[in-house]
Amino acid sequence: INLLVPSGQFGTRLQGGKDCASARYIYTRLERVARVLFHPDDDPILEYQSEEGQQIEPRWYIPVIPMALVNGAEGIGTGWSTSLPNYSPREVVEAMRKYIRQEPAGDDLRPWYKGYQGSIMPPEEADKNSFDVVGIAKRSAPNSIEITELPVKKWTQDYKEFLSKLVEGDNDGKGKIDDFKEYHTENTVHFVVSGSVEQMDALEHDGFEKSLKLRSSISTNNIVFFDPEGRIKRYSNVGELISDFAELRLKCYQKRKDFHVDRLRREKELLDAKVRFILMVIRGELVVSNRKRADILNDLRSHGFKTYQQIFAKTQGLPEGADMDVDEEGAAGGGAKAKEKNNGFDYLLGMPLWSLTLERVEDLKRQSKEKTDELENLEATPIEELWERDLTAVLAALDEIDELDLEANREEQRLRGKRPKPGEAAT
Questions:
Q1: Is there a domain that residue 15 lies in?
Q2: Full domain range(s) for residue 339
Q3: Which in 8, 83, 368, 403 has the greatest CB count within 10 A?
């Protein structure tokens, strides 16, 4: 899954990304699916770092599903290395759902690569942490073989060089094939190998997987990652990694729920305070015109009104002085200086004069009722259900991506037109 839009030439299967354009010619931006996988509701609970007194990125982000499984991982460091293949995001979503249902999760996962047409199967030997990857080749005619898929991470250019060596032959000068032609696209492989019937028979007799080197293997014996505490940990299998991730993910859902329950309560308290303030002004119980500021502030305190800072004290994720007003038109009230002068009561005293009406009271009561309903709904929702909703949203985003890819493929076919079949002359 692309988290960043590959705007430009980021490389193809031809050279495995080495054929990308220079950095100054490529651009990127955040994909829409990125904020589905990294939900905005998690932002306030992340552990943000600071540098030179400025808040910067968090120590780590927490996705809805383990993205290391989806996009794979490969790297080397001091004393350690790691290698993890890609897995189907839909199957990873299902593994998360199995964990929620307290069923074994991840044991049945096998590597998967988007658009790959070959086979990825467990070997005949009983090795649960290894998979055989086989490309596709078939005898299309007595004197030709079509190769339409290569093993994962065997790039088109490298394979072309291998076929060239088959044409040249060994030291005796006898080639195993006579020639080959190429009909690739950016995303597909298509070689047509030609030679005598005897040459083709020999290749087929040895098996295309062996004679044409169309078999490789993927191992999951070296899964090494940092755990949430920043410690290096080796995982014996994918299921163990999923279990570690899911345990952390559920803890974060509980933190998310606690934060947003607290936020809704405080926002409701803010709205209720505005309603009470406007009604007191309308009834004449609180006079704000033609009076000294200090006297007004004393009256507000004596009537039990809280300052903005008191309402949102110790609320995680809110920058100091952030304005949580809901649908409050023109409530700036003079900015930071006014807030300082009004000692935290700007959310009341900064309201425009036309807000001190019964219509505004009804509007604020409606907003307060909506907050109450939202709060009660969230309090009654188990954290597992919150996760399930996010997983459903991920699947919907994947459907959108698949549809866009399908449209792109159709457009490519339309622009290319009808291509001549191998062996036919173009007209």
A1: no
A2: 256-379
A3: 368
- Which entry of 25, 99, 183, 347 is annotated as an active-site residue? 25
Please say whether the beta carbons of 371 and 267 come within 8 A.
yes
25 is catalytic: yes
Tens digits of per-residue pLDDT, 398-415?
A: 999 999 988 988 887 787
Q: Are residues 315 and 266 in the same domain?
A: yes
**Has residue 99 been placed in a domain?**
yes
Neighbours of 160 (CB within 10 A): 15
pLDDT at res. 426:
42
pTM of the predicted model, to two decimals? 0.84
Domain assignment present for residue 2? The answer is no
> In this structure, are 50 and 161 located in the same domain?
no
Number of domains comprising the chain: 3
Q: 239 and 260 in one domain?
A: no
**Residues 295-327 pLDDT 10s:** 999 999 999 999 999 998 866 444 333 344 333
Three-state SS sequence of the chain? CCCECCECCCCCCCCCCCCCCCHHHCECCECCCHHHHCCHHHHHHCCEEEECCEEEEECCCCCCCCHHHHHCEEEEECCEEEEECCCCHHHHHHHHHHHHCCCCCCCCCCCCCCCCCCEEECCCCCCCCEEEEECEEEEEECCEEEEEECCCCCCHHHHHHHHHHHHHCCCCCCCCCCEEEECCCCCCCCEEEECCHHHHHHHHHHCHHHHCCCEEEEECCCEEEECCCCCEEEECCHHHHHHHHHHHHHHHHHHHHHHHHHHHHHHHHHHHHHHHHHHHHHHCCCCCCCCCHHHHHHHHHHCCCCCHHHHCCCCCCCCCCCCCCCCCCCCCCCHHHHHHHCCCCHHHHCCCHHHCCHHHHHHHHHHHHHHHHHHHHHHCCCHHHHHHHHHHHHHHHHHHHHHHHHHHHHHHHHHHCCCCCCCCCCC
**Judgement on whether residues 201 and 229 belong to the same structural domain of the protein:** no
CATH number at residue 157: 3.30.1360.40
CA distance 97 to 91: 10
In a domain, 316, yes or no: yes
Q: Is the domain of 345 the same as that of 392?
A: no
Tell whether the model's pLDDT for residue 19 goes beyond 70. Answer: yes
